[in-house]
Amino acid sequence: MKATTLFDKIWDSHVVHSVNQGPDVLYIDQHMIHEVTSPQAFTGINNRGQKVFRPERTLATADHNIPTKDQDKPIRDELSRIQVEKLTENCNDHNITLYGLGHPYNGIVHVIGPELGITRPGMTIVCGDSHTSTHGALGSIAFGIGTSEVEMVLASQCILQPKPKKMRINIDGTLKKGVSSKDIILYIISKISTSGGTGYFIEFAGSAIRNLSMEARMTICNMSIEMGARGGLIAPDETTFEYIKGREFAPSGEEWEKALTYWKTLKTDEDAVFDLELNYKAEDIGPMITYGTNPGMGINITERIPELSEVDENNRLSFNKSLEYMNFKPGDSMLGKPVDYVFVGSCTNGRIEDLRAFASIVKGRKKADSITAWIVPGSHHVESQAKEEGLLEILEKAGFELRQPGCSACLAMNDDKIPAGKYSVSTSNRNFEGRQGPGARTLLASPLTAAAAAVTGKITNPADLI
Length: 466
Fold this sequence. Notes:
Blueprint: H1 6-13, E1 15-18, E2 24-27, E3 30-33, H2 39-47, E4 58-61, H3 78-94, E5 97-99, H4 109-115, E6 124-127, E7 141-144, H5 147-156, E8 158-161, E9 165-172, H6 181-192, E10 200-205, H7 207-210, H8 214-222, E11 231-233, H9 238-244, H10 253-263, E12 276-281, E13 288-290, E14 298-300, H11 316-326, E15 341-344, H12 346-349, H13 352-362, E16 372-375, H14 380-388, H15 391-397, E17 423-426, E18 441-444, H16 447-456
Parallel strand pairs: 3-4, 3-6, 4-5, 6-7, 9-10, 9-12, 10-11, 15-16, 15-17, 17-18
Antiparallel strand pairs: 1-2, 2-8, 13-14
Helix pairs in contact: 2-5, 6-8, 13-16
């Protein structure tokens, strides 16, 4: 029998039909929707007089556009209010489960899927959001789709999709103090660029990956999209199974044993061949921070911004444009640069472990007077945990406020916008021009690095504060 990759095993078992010299018709186990990319899709099927084919395979939540304060009051922004109302209406009309504002299960779509036990190994998962790749951390094939494809899945529970090439990225060794999974993925993107994964689905492997918690693995798969990949996944193991066990919608009893038997088969065969394989040492990775306007423009926090002569000739124009926007210069040291805002949250780093990491640095310290900090849990469950574990008390004593769940300043679709010209150390996933607000300057980093900036008011190596 031919040796196959984990990706092949899952993909091939979900192919309903293969178009000759064309895409596959892929069956989708779980469809997730939110208020921003679903309205037009529902309009499409409603105009054709269709019903959602398998509503029990669709889950909805409000997250992108919602406010992170006063969620018990009417939404002030008209567009946001209309989108949330439309989602509620569409879900009612099509008998779809909705975790809307105020629901105890409400949260960012890529946070609630795993934490509720809805995301499981071996599944195919799609959502009208590029960071659907997050769910691949549990050993599933998960990827973002466009609005027309959302309509396709609502109507048929299938999607036309060309099969991507396969890449494996191995990280072996032991991480240094102050280094987290966010640093791993920013390091990889800095090495292969934001287009290095284009056309591939990536399996992350190696001892450093196996030693990560589930939530840390989610951060890595979440940002696989930032290197241009179709998605990322990690083989399920005992860490995965322990994480899922006992969660709200996880299988139990005989169903659990049956599922576990299958999940244990989900791994790449020893002799399987990838189209591309890359290897990195964990010891080479330090706390990372971005200095430019794409996630690939990142360096170790102790390093300097590259000189123009060190930049590929084809990239020099965009490099200069990026530094001009950020008001940085080639050769600048990042350490000590003053910042104005700190944002902890998003589907990348809005989980309980991220809040724990942030609290571990700020405990016993005070927020710098110059810093405005937005600490936004990824779900109500995370918010409740933060309170139960005493993290809220630590944050408040240090001068921080815990906001309500939502995507918040990651993409600034609500009121949480960084003002023009201000610097934000952000635990989110993108630092494009204007991503966090028109003219905002974003520095991507881990929760530990964000915490170090929050208490010092400047870019600081978190290893110095641990």
